[in-house]
Write a structure and sequence with these properties.
Layout lengths: L6 H25 L9 H9 L5 E3 L15 H24 L8 H26 L15 E3 L50 E3 L12 H27 L8 H26 L15 E3 L1
Antiparallel strand pairs: 1-2, 3-4
Helix pairs in contact: 2-3, 3-4, 4-6, 5-6
């Protein structure tokens, strides 16, 4: 038989209950940010750090995959892990760069490069499955991520500035797009406006392609044009961001994201050729560009 609590015990229980509710409420607020692949154990610490700038949420790729052949399982697992790592790194940059850049900084310095990396990763997954089963289509639609909570209004079209980052994060760290005329060396070189800061030079992809089947010609041409557009945009960003960032700014804010975008574009070229002819190998080595003075 239960006994009624004395009045002072009731007050004490009420106070303890209120304190517990406050603690739980704070925990929910701190831990409710990440979704999709971002909802992992490491995400809780990240979410607490990101209370002010918001958190990045990405669509879940694993749940959208078809049955995975045993021969592709290991590669799929590696790339699913990489997708989570990319989100964790982007959330860390989001916290580390609070207050930097203009109103469009997050979109082009963090979300844009993250999308490029996710496109390359999901394309590798689709290719791995397609070697021994029907290749899944439309996974690229899962690449874009969004900024939630307090940072939701901090997205747009053009990036203003990006932080320095370790060279190991160079492949897609920060920074993104713009537009500029270019010169003649393959897809490389820049405009005379770049004279003071150098120009970005990239390996020529067109000259390294095998014979292109007629059925793939239009798609290959579109992607070759896109490669040039990407260089144009990178060269303009190079001019527009003179003096910004630290010693690793150009690598992490311009060359790294450019390499990611070129990797995705070159992959599409190889895949389009491979539908009706032997798929060219090793084109990924042409993705990396350099800064020349």
């Amino acid at each position: 038989m239960s006994r009624a609590l004395p009045k002072y015990n009731k007050r004490r229980v009420a106070l303890i209950g209120s304190a517990t509710a406050l603690v739980l409420t704070g925990a929910v607020i701190a831990g409710s940010a990440l979704a999709g692949e971002s909802s992992k154990s490491s995400g809780n610490d990240t979410a607490r750090t990101l209370a002010s700038p918001g958190t990045i949420t990405c669509p879940d790729v694993a749940s959208q995959l078809p049955d995975i052949p045993a021969s592709a399982q290991a590669e799929i697992d590696r790339n699913l892990t990489l997708l989570q790592t990319q989100i964790d790194e982007a959330n860390k940059r989001l916290a580390d760069t609070v207050g930097q850049g203009g109103p469009n900084f997050v979109q082009n310095a963090i979300l844009g490069p993250l999308e490029d990396k996710r496109i390359a990763t999901v394309n590798r997954m689709a290719t791995a499955i397609g070697r021994t089963a029907e290749k899944p289509q439309g996974l690229d639609a899962l690449a874009p991520c969004t900024l939630n909570a307090d940072g939701a209004a901090d997205t747009g079209e053009e990036a203003e500035a990006t932080p320095s980052a370790p060279a190991s994060e160079a492949a897609g760290d920060t920074g993104q797009d713009a537009g500029q005329d270019t010169g003649n060396a393959g897809e490389d070189t820049g405009d005379a406006d770049n004279a003071g800061v150098g120009t970005i030079t990239c390996p020529d992809v067109a000259s390294q392609l095998p014979a292109v089947p007629a059925s793939a010609q239009a798609e290959v041409d579109r992607n070759l044009a896109l490669l040039q557009t990407q260089i144009d945009e990178a060269n303009t960003r190079l001019v527009n961001t003179v003096g910004q960032g630290g010693p690793n700014f150009v690598q992490n804010a311009i060359l790294g994201p450019l390499a990611d975008k070129r990797t995705s574009t070159i992959d599409r070229i190889a895949i389009s050729i491979g539908r009706t002819a032997e798929k060219p190998q090793g084109l990924g080595s042409l993705a990396t560009c350099t800064l020349t003075q």
